[in-house]
Structure formats: C-alpha cells, structure tokens
Amino acid sequence: MIFDTIVAKTTANGVSAINLIRVSGTESIEIVNKIFKGKDLTKQKSHTIHYGYIFKEEEQIDEVLVYIYRAPKTFTKEDIIEIACHGGNLIANEIIKLIIANGARLAENGEFTKRAYLNGRLDLTEAESIMDMVNAKNYNQLKIANSQLRGDVLKLVENLQNDVLDIIANIEVNIDYPEYDDVEEMTNDIIIPNIKILIEKIETILRESQTGQIIRDGIKTVIVGKPNVGKSSLLNSLLKEDKAIVTEISGTTRDLIEAELNLDGVILKLIDTAGIRSTEDIVEKIGINKSKKAIEEADLILLVLDQSESLTDTDKELLSITSQKPRIIIGNKIDLGSKISLENEHIINISVKNNIGLDKLSDEVKRLFIDEKLLNDDFTILSNTRHIGKLEETKKALSQALDSAYDLIPIDMVEIDLRNAWTYLGEITGENSSDDLISTLFSKFCLGK
Hints:
By secondary structure, this protein is α/β, with parallel strands linked by helices. It is built from 15 helices and 13 strands. It has helices spanning 28-35, 89-101, 111-118, 124-135, 139-149, 152-176, 183-217, 231-239, 282-297, 313-321, 360-369, 372-376, 385-406, 411-429, 435-443; strands at residues 6-9, 18-24, 36-37, 48-56, 59-69, 80-86, 105-106, 219-224, 257-263, 266-272, 300-306, 327-332, 347-349. A seven-stranded mixed sheet has the order 3-4-5-6-2-1-7. It has a six-stranded mixed sheet with strand order 9-10-8-11-12-13, with helices on both faces. Helix 10 links the parallel strand 11 (300-306) and strand 12 (327-332). Helix 6 packs antiparallel against helix 7 (183-217), helix 7 packs antiparallel against helix 13 and helix 13 (385-406) runs antiparallel to helix 14 (411-429).
C-alpha cells in the first residue's frame, strides 16, 4: 500500500535533552533532504546516522542527527527518517513546520503503528500490545505486553482457527466424497467430539484470561468502614503519602478519594469512601450514598473494622452489604486490642499507626485474583478486553454448532456456525476487521506512535 508522507514528534512535550521527530512515507528522505545541510541523504545507505543542521532558507534552526531507514526493513515498511534535535517544544515544532511545508502532513494519533499493521508488519494484537507496553506500570504488565508483541497471542488464535478449519474441512470432504453412509454417523464420530474439544480449549483460555485482565487493567478496590476506623490512614499508608486528610473527627472524608497503588505487581485502583453511618448532615449523606454506589461497582472491597472495639450495628450492616462481593476484612488498631473474631471469615489484623501487618495484604489480593503459576510458567495469557470478548463470541458460535449437531440439524447449517466462529477469531488479529474498528483502535494511541 502507498500512503502520503507523515511527520510527528515521538517524544513527550516539555523540557528535555533531546526530541525525536519521525517522518514516514515514500517522500520522507527527499523532504528532509531539502531542509538538511550535511551529506546528501538521498544517496546514503539504510540504517545509517548523519550529522548536520536543519535550515529554514538561510537561517539555522538546530544542530541534529538524522537516522535513515529504507523500506521495507522499517517499522512501517516505508522509508523512515528520524531527526534527533535539541529538547524543548519550540525547536521540534519549527522543524515539523518545515517538513510539512515541504510536502508532509502531521500524523494522526497512532498512525505510524496503523501503517505498520496495514502494511503487514504487525497483526492487530501486536499493534495493540505497543500501547500496553507504553502504559505498563509494573513488570507483570510489561511481561504480558511483550508476550503479545512477539506474536504469542497471534499463534494462539491461529491454532484455534486451524482447529475450526479442520472440522469444516471434514464436513466439506464428507459432503463431496462421502466416507460414511449417513450424516448421523459422521456427526457423532467427527463433528461433535472435535467441537467439544475446541470449546474446552477456549474455556481454559478464558479462565486463564481473568488473571491477564486483572494484571492489565487493575482491580477497582473500595475501602469501606464506619467513620474514624482508619480508612484514610490505611490509604495514606499504602500510598506512602498524605493523600487523604486524617483527623479524629468522625466524618472527615465526605467524598470519594481515588489513587492507584502498585501492590507487588498488581495495580489496585483505590477508592477511599466516606464513613458509613446515620447522619443528618446533607453533605455527608451525599458522600455516604456515593460510598454505597462505589461498593456496588467495586471488584474488591477492603472492609476495615476497629479491633479495639466490639462489632457495632454499622459494622454488621457493612458485613452484610459486602457479603456477596470479593472482599478482604481488615482489623485495624490491633495494637489496642483484639475484640473481633468472625466465624468462617479470615481477618487480616493490622496497625496502620505502627505499620504492622500491611505486608499481608498483597498476599491476600493475589490469593483472590491472581494465578501466579500462569505468570511464572510463561503461559500465553489473553488480557485485552476486546480479545476476550471475541473469544466469548467464538465459544457461543461453537456452542450453537454443537447444539445443532446434537439435534441433527442439516450439516451445512452446522457449518455456518463454525464459519462464524472462525470469523470471530480473525477479528482478534485483524484478519477480519472493519475500517471503523481499525480507526477507533488506533485513535486511542498517542501522537507519534
């Protein structure tokens, strides 16, 4: 495919030592050569670096290094020029203006990666993994993104597609060249067993993807408890900063306070809530209602109790409200006594004030959400919500095919569901994807990627 030439700054805005400007397209070398004083770039070999100056007519703009990459051995499979200039927004913007004035245009968000995909350099899963790498906040997120970038998800999906095609091929062969005297025998011997095996494979992948999705997207975690139980102190202690105001006055926290915590490789999206109690204060009531809504939407509840006091009616209400949610019960103020024990419930006893027991929290979070064997054994784990959704659709189509086979529906009707399953798998890798989907996905990338 032939596209016009695009340009964008690939480094972040702000003061820095250097900036990097990327130009990609069939005219990239010729365009940059017009504003570069040094060697003739059009005569230089691929993957070489050249020292010189960028000029606007007779005025020197900056001293630069120019990197030349000739197609097809480049990220976009097009000719690429990268200009390393001095940092700061002004210099880079002036150079970009010159490049645009000489025939290029400003790239759209994610357009370099989009071209890499459209030119066959990457499949869609590999392209998406690039932004996952950029956004990674811990080693586990980076590990999963790297696995996707090197094509592990592509191989997984292709293997599933081949399994579907094998079943379709058996149907086609036996329709054109019957090996069985009746369709029922072929269905029972070939189609039903193979579809069942494939559904089991997908169910295993979907179970394992729960770990991947948690690693990639984090856990929406709500800290709840009665007023003055130590919720805000717990938040501050986990973050190692004074994020929330802490006083001995009940009802100090009146609105939701949000923060992110990297807890030993798992991102907790923490929300500190207003203490739940009966109150006539209008503002506090609003905060309490927000707290109750946050509980409903949470992936994990950290329910904080006061170990120095017996259970109150409010504590019992919170235990009831959160009973159907994944939760960790935390007994704070253990340094002042231990007055609470709950039947069939595990309590992590801590003292936020004295920094006792907080290390147990990460172990409990992992026990509830993370299959560490998958992370340690280099399994291919799906983590992208779009991929998981398409795999769910694939499973549904296969289940419909299986039901039809059991009901001895005409075999060509069973094949329709199987072909739908193959198509859904192709949408994961971009083999079968609409232009709207592609445009939407790459619009979420940053400029210059």
